Amino acid sequence: MHLLVTLLDLPRRVPGGHGPGGPSVPGGASSHWVLPIMGLFFLLAMVAVVVLIVMAVTRRPRGVQGGVVAASAGNPVISELELRYARGEISREDFLQRRADLTGSPPPLPPAAPANPSPPAEPQG
């Protein structure tokens, strides 16, 4: 305990020292520049923390497209369905219907038929 009191009282015992709050280095050197620099480092640290939090919140995870996670990203069932379609084991309509059933999204609408189909050309003979 005596050592702690001695260390805390050390600035007053240094020759030329002026105690706490004043210069304690012989020759009159001042330490008034320390607090502004510490404040600047603290401010930079706070800005860095805020930037990291904003980046963590706004960053999208891999596989996100347009705010929705891609259906096949991490889903082995959808991946298998895509493989079967790619190998030609199922038709396009069957693929679209099964994918819609598995993902819970409505199947895409079929392409619209032409409004006025032209009659087939008659063979000339």
Describe it for me?
- This protein has helices at residues 2-8, 10-13, 34-58, 76-86, 92-103, and strands at 64-65, 68-69.
- The chain has 125 residues and is mainly α.
- A two-stranded antiparallel sheet has the order 1-2.
- Strand 1 (64-65) and strand 2 form a beta hairpin.
- The protein starts with a helix and ends in a 22-residue tail after the last helix.
- The model has no long low-confidence stretch (mean pLDDT 73).
What shape does the CA trace take?
Answer: elongated
Secondary-structure-based class equals mainly alpha
Report the strand count.
2
Strand content: under 5%
Q: Compute the separation of the termini in Å.
A: 121 Å
Percent of residues in helices comes to 40-55%
**What order do the SSEs take from the amino end to the carboxyl end, as H and E?**
HHHEEHH
Q: Determine the number of helices (DSSP H or I, runs of at least 4 residues).
A: 5
Stretches where pLDDT falls below 50 for ≥5 residues?
A: none
The biggest sheet, with number of strands, parallel, antiparallel or mixed sense and barrel status, is:
2 strands, antiparallel
Strand order of the largest sheet: 1-2
* Average pLDDT figure: 73
